[in-house]
Amino acid sequence: PVAFIFGPEHGPVTEQMVYAAAKEAHLKSYSHLFVVGFAIQPSATKLIQGCEKIMGLPATYVPATMDLVMGALLKTTRASQVFSVTGAPDVRLLKLKKKGPDGPLYRVELRGLDVFDPVTMQSDHRKGDDVPAWFLDTDYDDLVFHVGQAFFPRTSAWENLRRALKADFEDSVWAHLAGTSSAPFAAGEHGQVAVKVIDPRGNELMVVKDLAAPA
Hints:
- By secondary structure, the protein is an alpha+beta fold.
- The protein has helices at 15-27, 42-49, 51-55, 157-165, 171-177, and strands spanning 3-6, 33-37, 59-63, 90-100, 103-117, 122-127, 133-137, 149-151, 185-186, 192-198, 204-210.
- 23% of the residues are buried.
C-alpha cells in the first residue's frame, strides 16, 4: 500500500505538510508517499528527497498541471496528462574572479532538466537551451520569488520581435536573453539565489543555491 497527500489549490506544498504526512504514513506501514501539488517550497523538496533517510519512508513529489483548476474550460481526453514527474533543474553556481563595487560577483548556469514521459515510460534529459523559460532571483528570501533576470532559450519569439521593432540591436543582447548563463550579480541580503524553470508542460520547477557554496 502507498499513501497520497494533496497540496492546497492556492499555495505550495510546505515542509510541515510533508513531515506530518510522512510520519503518519510510516506509522501506518505504507511503503511509499506520493506528494501531489501545484507548487512546492524548496525546504519541502529537500525533505522529500531525504525522506527515506529522515523519516524511514521513501517519497516522491508529483507536480499537477494547472489545467486541473480550470474546470470545464479545457477539453479533457484520454491522452491528457494532468500529472508529471520531473527532476529538479540542474544548476551551477559560479563565483567569478572579478569583483564589483559591492564585493564578489556570481553567475548562474542552467545545465539542463530531466523529464519523465508517462507515454513512453522513459526519462528524457533536456539541455539548458531546450527549455521554454527560466528565471533567476538573485536574493531569494524563502518566501517570495522575485524575478531579477529572465531567459527564454527555446523560442523563436526573439527573431519575430527583432523584425517587429525594425531596428538594429547588438546580437549579443539577443543571445543573452535566449541563453543559459546569467549576467554577473552581487550577493544579496539573504545570501542565496533561486532558479525557477518552466518545463515543456508548463510546470514550475525551482531550486535554491547558497552563495556560500559555489562551484
